[in-house]
Specification:
Layout (H helix, E strand, L loop, with lengths): L2 H14 L5 H12 L4 H11 L2 H37 L18 H15 L3 E2 L5 E3 H4 L19 E2 L1 E6 L4 H9 L5 E10 L11 E11 L4 H16 L5 E8 L2 E10 L16 E10 L1 H6 L8 E8 H9 L6 H4 L2 H4 L10
Parallel strand pairs: 1-5
Antiparallel strand pairs: 2-4, 3-4, 5-6, 6-10, 7-8, 8-9, 9-10
The protein binds phenylalanine (PHE).
């Protein structure tokens, strides 16, 4: 066989080569390109031939060597793939891995819990606009025209001094009372805005859930019982509440609700500033003037209202140390919250 014929024969062999395993691919490499391999031998023989033949043959030989190397690489890659598919101990009958689906924001998880608890005792959910007029945010709620809460420091006005970003969702309760007669039992979850400098403890926007119950004979005892049921449902049966006198223009009497600190159990810690109590909401009996402002007869009906900040409640549940974290959308923060990690 001439050298040229041997090159042609090996070219065919390379083209048709197969390997069922990595070992077979390696065997083929040794047979072709190893120290005593067929292609290597051809290169040795090539050195002996006359120089006029060398040019043509040299090219063919180099091409053969490259083709052999390429084929070996292919065979090795193919056998490697097959090995990881079958042999790595993975269970081919296992259900397919699902795509990561993300998670709910901690504020959404806690707001939903609050809505569920009030839903279970007959409260509907009401919503209203975030850009609100003076009447619904302040006027109907008995804020005197010169009340400091209307001041530029607290309120973001929009275009005129009659339109503002709502500072609380009590505005929604005004809308509900204006559009229907008691019995009314509703909560209004939503985003609210106040012109505050942003820090770990304050933000210019946050979430509230406010509640309203208006019917014949609604009393302060009903209010206290409802809030006691709510806090025990959310934080567990061991917490208790107490009420301190307070002031809101739209309720009379008004109270601030403290809950025994759910973090230290009342023993005293940083969160409750070693008092054993944490403030969780404001509440009171709807001022008769407010009922009248909204078209409800205060001689016939009475009602209570309450309002809480969802960030505050979430902080007590998940121990988030800095209010700004709620808004940064850092996935390392958001990833930590699932309904399963809800603790109370
Ligand atoms: N609207 C009050 C606030 O935003 C909360 C509140 C609601 C207080 C209902 C009493 C009754 O702070």
């Amino acid at each position: 066989m001439s050298l040229l014929e041997r090159v042609a024969a090996l070219e065919a062999e390379v083209k048709n080569a197969t390997a069922r395993s990595a070992e077979e691919a390696e065997k083929f490499r040794v047979a072709m390109l190893g120290r005593n391999g067929a292609v290597t031998e051809l290169f040795d023989a090539f050195k002996q031939i006359a120089s006029e033949e060398k040019r043509l043959l040299g090219q063919r030989l180099n091409q053969l060597k490259q083709a052999a190397q390429a084929r070996i690489d292919e065979l090795k890659a193919a056998t490697e793939e097959a090995r990881t598919e079958q042999g790595s101990g993975s269970d081919l009958s296992a259900p397919a891995a699902t795509e990561p689906t993300g998670s709910l924001h901690p504020i959404s998880i806690v707001r939903q819990r609050i809505v569920d608890i009030f839903g279970s005792i007959g409260y509907t959910v009401s919503q209203g606009p975030e850009v609100e007029d003076d009447h619904h945010n302040f006027g109907a709620l008995n804020f005197p025209p010169d009340h400091p809460a209307r001041d530029m420091q607290d309120t973001f006005f929009v275009e005129s001094d009659d339109l503002a970003l709502r500072t609380h969702t009590s505005s929604v309760q005004v809308r509900v009372m204006e559009s229907g007669q008691p019995p009314i039992r509703t909560i209004s979850p939503g985003r609210v805005y106040r012109n505050e400098a942003i820090s770990a403890r304050a933000h210019c926007m946050f979430h509230q859930v406010e509640g309203l119950y208006v019917d014949k004979g609604v009393s302060f005892a009903d209010l206290k019982g409802t809030l006691d049921h709510f806090t025990k449902s959310l934080f567990g049966p061991d917490v208790s509440i107490r009420m301190r006198p307070s002031y809101f223009p739209f309720t009379e009497p008004s109270a601030e609700v403290d809950m025994s600190c759910s973090i230290c159990g009342g023993a005293g810690c940083n969160i409750c500033k070693h008092s054993g109590w944490v403030e969780i909401m404001g509440c009171g009996m709807v001022d008769p003037t407010v009922l009248a402002n909204c078209g409800i007869d205060p001689e016939v009906y009475s009602g209570f209202a309450f309002g809480m900040g969802v960030e505050r409640i979430t902080q007590l549940i998940y121990r988030v140390p800095d209010l700004r974290m709620y808004w940064e959308n850092d996935v390392r923060f958001l990833d930590q919250f699932t309904a399963a990690t809800f603790r109370r």
